[in-house]
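Sharing a chain and its predicted structure for anyone who wants a worked example. Both blocks are below, sequence first, tokens second.
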Amino acid sequence: MFTGIIEEIGRVKNIKQSSQAVELTIHANKIMKDMHNGDSISVNGVCLTVTSFSNDEFHLDVMPETIKSTSLRELKNGSTVNLERAMSPQGRFGGHFVSGHVDGVGTVKNIKDAGNARYYEIKADAEIIKYTILKGSVAIDGTSLTVFVVSDSTFTISLIPHTRAETILSEKVVGDLVNIECDMLGKYIEHFVHSRFSNSQEENKTSITYDLLQKNGFA
């Protein structure tokens, strides 16, 4: 579990492709202090597992499906990435609940400055938009942000100078891909409501029989 508060910008040192997976080697400093094999690290919003590490770099295996369905497929040697360690129960919870399970990929459609803010309009599929609400939370490349505008096919987020300085989002240009994770609370609520509604319908269907209708004068 993550918070969406980026701890450090890392840099891809090496990408090794095999038939079974892609191994990433990432250079970092701050998050190396208490790293262990098996730790979960959010890389641009994707939860990955540390397989080995040294003083200033760590290695991760990425499955082909993850590469295919996220913006990690665009990484190359030298690419910068947002990094966050799994949240600590002793720390402050400054963002929102982020699982590191990306829901889809969006495209930066427009960038506009307004005062000290920078607005990013992101185009996304309908399956993403339906979970995106005004003033709700969304994780973009693992960064916890607030939604300011929602349309049928896009939503807009705003970055203050601090967020631009501490994440790779300041490097994004129109046409770039970003990983999107919707607020998990909304997804759980939808699942529970849909499941309850479906079960109620099924119960109603099975409880009305021909004998019941005949007994009550309807057949």
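Comments welcome. The helical segments are 64-69, 126-129, 161-166, 184-207, 210-215.
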